[in-house]
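As noted in the main text, all predictions were made from sequence alone. Below is one such record, for Aminopeptidase N.
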Amino acid sequence: MHRRIMAPGALAAASLMLVIPASAASHSPGAPGIGDPYYPAYGNGGYDVSHYDLRLKYQPATDELEGTATLLARTTQDLSRFNLDFLLDVSEVRVNGAKASFATSGEHELEITPKNPLAKGTAVTVVVRYRGVPSSKEAYGFNAWLRTADGGVAAGEPEGAWWWFPSNDHPLDKATFDVSVQVPNGTQFISNGTLQSTSSRAGWTRYNWRSNKPQTTYLATFAAGRFDVTTGTSEGGIPVINAYSKDLGDNYGAARASIERSGEIADWLSEYFGPYPYNSVGGYVPNTPSVGYALETQTRPFYSPRGFSNGTNTSVVVHELAHQWYGDDVSVEHWKDIWINEGFARYAQWLWSEHEGEGTAQEIADYVYASRAADDPFWTVRPGNPGPENQFHIAVYDRGALALQALRNEIGDKAFFEILKGWPQKHAYGNASVADFRRYAEEVSGQPLAALFDTWLFQPSKPAAAVARGASIARSATAPAQPRSWKKIAATNGVHDHGREHADGHAEHEHER
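Prediction:
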């Protein structure tokens, strides 16, 4: 479901990081990036955030956002200065109660110099007061804020937080969230987790949401508008909260018929991936017809209405909810590990197809493999390290899922499904890499798997072997027969939430440019 090539200036940021290492001398500035090879300027060094408290006010008519962010953090080095990733206009910063000086630099950096240097291991409270119009702010030539007729939405990957709250914006720094937003009466506010309370005063209503499990910053979502909200509880006991824009038009029925099954789908996925890791589940569909993607915003995925233009689409719901385990609970260590997110969420769609009687995972794998000729550029993309320009290419999804089917056929169903369920428990609320997954698969299966992983994830060519030992692909040079109900499978088997519109190009991740 995603996008974004390396931002301009990234190499310069990388160079800067080299001269400001995390192990720098006493009271040195924190690095302006956390060290991701794809996005060197993303995230920051020198501290770790444990909690974000956001108390905001939003005016849909003008797209004005104002308020205060309070960050609870701890320093990881002696620190003279540190950065936050942010774009709106800051009026005041306090560090441990004292006013701090601040300045902006680069495309999205807020540099903060506390009154007194901070020693390593210090508990830090950072208060940032700010305001601005998110839709007016750009970084690297794009804007991740989605303006709607009745409000605004923040849902983007690998970046999205910059447009509405200051943060350490990288999956390596997860935190819990309290998000409190005041909107005019008649407008609702949707975010992650559970709705703790609402209160109305003088024509405004305040919504208080809480995410009580670690959450990476790009998974925090903001949605203000006029929604129909439904609530309930899944058969497995998970609270369900869904929201649909009142002006979805002809897509309203299909969207609701799909997303109202979120509780059922989360319970079904729990059979494969283990207990659901969060305090609620659901989804929301704002009226954002200009974009065609969906995003796994934690507990409450974002869906574009375009995803339901051909009717119900439970497959995309499966994809986004699979991410609650693979991508949200266990997040990438660096963005090059994106296969850990997308290959697994795509494979969950194949398992759902099998569950619904619309084609087995093996049938779909056979078809996908045979549908791409050996000289198709698809096979030059390496899902295990695709590069920032191909981070959300369809090969990361489809070839990534083929790798899992190959693994399943190599080690057998018992070990394969033990791995699918054990992995989220082993790395719960943390981060992991492709290399970590290979080692775990070898540990559980008791088999050496380096060659299999190299063939399917790292070689820039079509594997000569079949997807499965003795599969139809190995026996025939022609494409196998289409699975049952293939038309429906194909319609939901594109670049996950992007659909077929980006199937042969670079998937543009969370916002289209």
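The two ends are 14 Å apart (CA to CA). Residues 394-411 form the longest helix (18 residues). These features were considered when defining construct boundaries for the mutagenesis experiments described in Section 2.9.
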